[in-house]
Structures are given as structure tokens and as C-alpha cells.
């Protein structure tokens, strides 16, 4: 397997900045790809060891392109996550004034994060989506658009200047990125972990989602993300992308997954990995009856009952 990481490029994306915060990135060749799909396909094809892509932001929720790619195709596994605070700069060719801007571009996920700023400062501007924020900067450099929303750090890379900086509609906006590789054994639990899965229902019926969520609630497993995505099989056919607290080696999480496997048409395990939104690992306070020791004690009691030793 090549000692390289694929990432959503070109150079100068927020994805690249987040990727370079991983210590192991310093020992890998970092290769930009034109889309999330092509970066993940590089891993599936054995052209890269792993891919680093955005998966969620705090303004709009899940990045649908990434979620859909993880839902479909050859299975992949999430091994790490990184949180990056996001603020945008309005990048233009040198000498461009705000009054001269008629067209702007950026990645689609950027638009909800600068919508109010646009309405106030550039209400008549025409928005066009780009493959990434850095690609938008490249298109401005080539003269295709008047301005791009991107990281201020991308200005020098593309010969642009930052006309405005610190642009964001929501304070403390963050984007979550994940390192994705081919399936392998999850890393050891840290006590502050996250497990990601995709669920498909057997059929559509009243209370169906409640039944699935009950598998988590009964065992004291907290959900961190729940997003429905269309399966492509017709209107009303959805699967559910879920992030839950805990590691697959935790008894409460393992038993939740077993319960879901029994009742769902399909369950895709996307990985258990350390959470990026906490400090030193700290076990979450659990509701009574949901610790590993209590699960083990209950299992031992059932075994003794089966043996007539109750």
C-alpha cells in the first residue's frame, strides 16, 4: 500500500490544513484529488493508504457527498477525526474592489456559512459552486469568477489578495474531517470514542425509527449524529447515518450493534475511533445498568440460570 494520503484538493483547502494537524501526515505523501469521491476511490483502488475528507459542519450538519460515498460502494472504515474552526476570506485578484464583484464561488458547504454576509454586502452577486474552496480560488485566478470564499491562507498560493477576512455567519463554526482507510481492526478504545454506522430498515412502518433508536436508548448509548439519506430506490426510501458515543469493544455498544443487526435489513459498520471534541480521555457517566461490568454480570447470571445454578 503506498505511503500516501489522498485529500480533497487542490492545495490550499481547509481539508489540507486539517490533515496537516495529524502527526502521521508528516510521514506521508499528501496527494490532492478533485473530489471526495475520487479521494475515496483512490483508497478503494489501492492507490492511497487513506483519504482525508470533510464529513460534517456545525452549520449545515452532515456533508452529503461524503456520507453518500461511505454508504455506497466497497466498505471503508473511519480511523481518525479532526475538528477545524472555519472562517472565510473573500479572495480577489489584486486591485479588485467590492463594488466590482458580480460573481463569487466556493464549495457548496460554504454558502450556508456566509449567506447573511453576502446578503448584506453583495446582495446582487451571482453564486456558482466549485469542487472545493481552493478550486474556487484557482478559478478566480484564471478569471472565471470575480471572487471566492476560501481560507485566507489560500491567497498567496493562487496570487490573490484577501479583500475581506473573518467572514462567518455563525460564531465558532467548525468542520469535522475524517481519515478513511480500508477495513481493518479498530484502534484500541480510549474511553472517549465514537462509533459510526449506517442502518437500513427491513420495511417502512409506524414507529420504525423509534424501534431503531430504542436499541441505543435501552443500553444507554448516546447519539451524536442522526441523518437520513435517500437510498435511490424511490421516494420515501432512506437509510440512516448515525454517530454514537462509545467504542465497539464497549459492551453496551457491542450489544446495541447486535440488536440492530437482528432487526435491520442491513447494518454497515464505519468504524470506532477517538473523538476529537474532548480533552484527555474520560469515561462518560453512564446510566445505571450500562457499564461493561454490569453487562458482564448480567450475561453471567443468564449463563448460570441456563446451567441450573441460579
The helix count comes to 9
* Average pLDDT reading: 91
Q: What shape does the CA trace take?
A: elongated
Helix percentage range: 25-40%
Strand content: 25-35%
Q: What class would the helix/strand composition place it in?
A: alpha/beta
Strand tally: 15
User: Unreliable segments (pLDDT under 50, ≥5 consecutive)?
Assistant: none
Q: What's the order of the H and E elements?
A: EHEHEEHEEEHEHEHEEEHEEHEH
Q: What's the alpha carbon Rg, rounded to whole Å? A: 22 Å
Give the terminus-to-terminus CA distance. 53 Å
Q: Sheet with the most strands?
A: 6 strands, mixed
Q: What does the model show?
A:
Helix content is 28%, strand content 30%. Strand 1, helix 1 (14-19) and strand 2 form a beta-alpha-beta unit. The protein is built from nine helices and 15 strands. The strands form three sheets. Strands 1, 2, 3, 4, 5 and 11 form a six-stranded mixed beta sheet that branches. The chain has a five-stranded mixed beta sheet with strand order 8-7-9-6-10. It has a four-stranded antiparallel beta sheet with strand order 13-14-12-15, with helices on both faces. The longest helix has 15 residues, at 292-306.
